[in-house]
Amino acid sequence: MMDRSLVFAAILFGLLLLMPFLLPLFGSEYLIGLIIKAMLLAIAAISLDLLIGHGGMVSLGHAAFVGVGAYATAIGLENGIENILLLLVIALAVTCFVALVTGSLALRTSGVYFLMITLAFGQMTYFTLTSLAAYGGDDGLTLWSLATLFGSNIVQSGSGLYFLVLGTLFATWWGVFQISRSRFGRVLRAARDNPERAEVMGYAVTRYRLIAYLIAAMIAGVSGLLLVQHAEFVSPALATWQRSGDLIVVVVLGGLGSRNGAILGAFFIVIIEEVLGSFVHEWRLIYGPVLVLMVLFAKGGIADLFVSKDAKGRAA
């Protein structure tokens, strides 16, 4: 019997694939930008879910890697590097280096101490970005040129950018899915559930966790690159702990360790913010209770509404 979560994912990605062709027919091109925003949030959330859902590492500084990837891209553009593939290499290299330094220190701790040290590193990153006076400082930086693909502007806007973000989202989803099914993923979950037993069995738990930390950071860095391409603007606000908190909300709301939870959580958050914000100025007064109700009555996350417990168990 086919896994329901895979069927749902196929339907979800199929709908996203059709959106650029369907929405303009109804004069709703604005919604394309909204979907891109949700997909970018989903990419970062999937990377965090690799840490929390599969590794049991709750990070309150994950948005820092989004900011690092975004600034690495923006600084590259400001210095005349416009090829998106070269910018991708730069963003991956910089985020990997930052993650290697911070992860090597953070993973010496666990539990609430890991949470606090990632918060500290995230704030350090934020204040480092605000100190970049040559690149806007606190005010951020508006970009007058965007990345190109071998000189073509196809990835700068419109359907080209949409399909680039969608392709990245699918690659991220598929990559994390394959990791979860691999020996590496099984060891990571074993270390999450009982690290002492995993160590006794001969697995280097810290090494596995560090690799997962690096992978998650680089995925977040890629989302930062695409965010620059979409927003044409970069700001230190991308790296604040509040943004990291938003990512945790997306992951928990969607469903920890599920295949589709981060995507569903991202779309739910973006849509509800847009809908409430269009009716009520102080929309967060309604947004908060809605989240509380979701947590109380959908304890397995939004993904639990679409995937049976058995299928969810096989997905893990």
From TrEMBL:
Keywords: Cell membrane, Membrane, Transmembrane, Transmembrane helix
Spans traversing the lipid bilayer: 30-52, 59-77, 83-105, 112-134, 154-176, 210-228, 248-272, 284-302
Chief subcellular location: membrane
Entry membrane topology: Multi-pass membrane protein
Pfam family, one: BPD_transp_2
Protein's UniProt keywords contain Cytoplasm: no
Subcellular location: Cell membrane
Protein name, entry field: Amino acid/amide ABC transporter membrane protein 2, HAAT family
